[in-house]
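Hi R.,

As promised on Friday, here is the backbone we talked about, encoded as structure tokens. Could you run it through your design pipeline when you get a chance and send me back a sequence?
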């Protein structure tokens, strides 16, 4: 088994771990935690960290499977940046009330609420991140060549 297959398996494992963490964040009763009203800060952080790990694992898998030792073209670089923008937007939108720029800032002793606009923003930013990953996977150059800039590829 060569290195690219090992990294592809690692990417699948990391993406699966991220999916499980995101699922636990969305549905905490799965692991026996009591569900309470609202979405807490820890629950939102769990969702965001899980999604970030999921996207990272997917990138590792796509790079190791389809583009080992290949240079990234402009479309792939745009896809990576679009995906990371989606993750940053999800973080900003998910923590908006906690950071103080959301419309439902909690009072002392209250939990922040996740409103419909915030939910739509989270789903939209997750879709933007997924679109970036899809662009990275579909618009890669299939011809092998050696990179001139070591920052252009991930070598597996």
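Update: got your reply. Pasting your designed sequence below so it's all in one thread:
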């Amino acid at each position: 088994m060569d290195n690219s297959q090992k990294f592809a398996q690692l990417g699948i494992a990391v993406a699966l771990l991220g999916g499980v963490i995101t699922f636990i964040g969305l549905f905490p009763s799965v692991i026996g935690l009591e569900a309470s009203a609202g979405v807490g800060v820890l629950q939102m952080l769990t969702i965001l960290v899980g999604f970030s790990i999921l996207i990272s694992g997917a990138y590792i898998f796509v790079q190791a499977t389809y583009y080992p030792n290949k240079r990234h073209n402009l479309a792939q670089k745009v896809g990576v940046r679009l995906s990371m923008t989606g993750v940053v937007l999800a973080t900003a939108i998910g923590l908006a009330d906690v950071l103080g720029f959301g419309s439902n800032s909690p009072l002392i002793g209250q939990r922040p609420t996740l409103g419909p606009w915030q939910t739509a923003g989270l789903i939209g930013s997750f879709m933007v991140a997924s679109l970036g990953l899809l662009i990275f996977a579909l618009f890669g150059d299939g011809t092998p060549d050696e990179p001139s800039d070591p920052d252009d590829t991930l070598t597996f």
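One thing I noticed while checking it: The first helix runs from residue 3 to 26.

Thanks again,
M.
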